[in-house]
Amino acid sequence: MNAEPRPPVARPEAHGFLTRLALSPRFHRLAARIPGLRWIARREGAALFSIISGFVQSQALAALVEARILHMLASGPMTTEELTYGCAIPPASLTVLLRAGAALKLLSVDRNGRWTLAPRGAAFLTVPGLEPMVRHHHVLYGDLNDPLAFFRDQTDTALAGFWPYVFGPMANENAVLAARYSRLMAESQVLVARDTLRLVDLSRRRHLLDVGGGTGAFLSEVAAAHPRLTLSLFDLPTVLAAVPPGLRDHVQCHPGSFLTDALPVGADTISLVRVLYDHPDEVVSRLLASAHAALPSGGLLVVSEPMSGGSRPDPATDVYFAVYTLAMRTGRTRSAAEIGGLLQSAGFADIRTRPGDRPYVTSVVTASRP
To answer: Relative to the CA of 64, which of 11, 226, 255, 324 has its CA 20 to 30 Å away?
Structure first.
């Protein structure tokens, strides 16, 4: 009979010096009286409260988006009364929401009491992918309603059911789910594509095969940046059916599933954009081996997706994306070093990490077939 696990024994001496200080109520009382330490204490207190209030902040943003308040202000300043009429929120509640938006620097109020769109709010409306991401958050937030049950794997997550067509037999049957997934990915993929192309030079490549590329959002950006490059797209038949006609004229579409089918040969470059973190290690290993087999000697593989910070956890990728992929119950957010290890096991060489300027958008790992 197995013994019950024992609770951990507290060992304060095992902590670092600063952590031991932070665990001391006496130090906190002292810090409140010393100017330099008081500034540090206030800064850390503000950071902690930002973590505590983060969910409310994101929900305030969701309300601003769903009520289209930012969109209305994009056309010019408006009073609270005018906004009330436009979004059907009572004035008292709307005032709280608008002030929250101003505190988040998404909007501001002028001398005449009219609300205006702030630069951050304007950027939110302009940067591709942000708005659909916020509109999609209710699915993830529902899964996190009981966070302890979620991390104990006791939650039947809605996200796991939101993407079922990607991972199972219904992949070739449910066109509605396929279209919904592809639309969300296409709307968020533009920014990923542009950051990827800043990190990888494709000017000397001849033929690019994008695997799992949805309706071609990445290839659209590639075509604009490298018009002489031959482009191919490999994805599920139900997904390829939604490729825009204008793009279809310039892209060779190859229907299939990398879960069961070999990748088409002929390209000297293969891209996997936001693909690996959707799948477990065994699927990723098979996919990388398939990419290795499809590439010629000297062929380039490009992996682009948000990546864990590894030994230095990143607040964007190791919180948001890691939790999101955990809720999907299929893949996980990996570090560049982990991806590099999988690439090496698949036979690739010259593995290089190219950290993105915005890791919450994407980073890149490249590798070559010897």
So the answer is: 324
